[in-house]
Prior knowledge:
The chain has 252 residues and is of the alpha/beta class. Helix content is 44%, strand content 14%.
Amino acid sequence: MRKNIVAGNWKMNKTLQEGVQLAAEVRKQVEASGALKCEVVLAPPFIHLTEVCKVVAGSGIGVSAQNCAAETSGAYTGEVSAAMIQSIGCAYTLIGHSERRSYYGDTDQILSKKVKMALANGLKPIFCIGEVLAERESGIHFEVVKSQLEKGLFDLTTEEFQNIVLAYEPVWAIGTGKTASSAQAQEIHAFIRRTIELKYGAQVAQNTTILYGGSCNDANAAELFACPDVDGGLIGGASLVAEKFIKIAQAF
Ligand code: PEP
């Protein structure tokens, strides 16, 4: 059975001290919640990762980077490798967030290299896909996500693909306060699962975790997570306040 995940993408927010405090608060509230029906994952900025790993150690909370280098090691000033991320205890890395695609030139080809680098170093990629508003309005959103899947992931072996977590994030919903309706989310998540099925077979498709992201919050999470093909959320703004974030994790 596939795993439900609620992952908090802190983006470029919080000083180290604030981040440690937030992670400690999330841990406290996760432990006070009793058994949650999802894995909670935190994706803080790179320089917070070591400390956040220590704060959540032994709690079952996962830690993710927000990006990783496409190269192994060497003269790549400013980059952080998958091996480095794995060496401090992270289990995941986001790859292909729309902000990386649009502001930092992460093309499908680069993302495909990053995915392979993450997998080769024992990290699970949380691979983000999603269309911009003009693509949704012109009705090509299905082709857009299919192409992102094919170019970023579909040269993986079945064994490799089983370590991928997907996050469908319509770009028009990220940080805008506009959320996809549960019907829109279910429709495209089912399409993504069907696309995976055609490539890797029904069992792999059924076992793939597909998260929804885009202005998901404690008021709309329960309706989104009730969709049969939505297996949790990638949460931006609402992950910066422990109480709101935990309410989302409790929404299953
Ligand atoms: C995100 O950036 O992954 C995201 C979903 O952001 P927000 O929840 O703020 O829309």
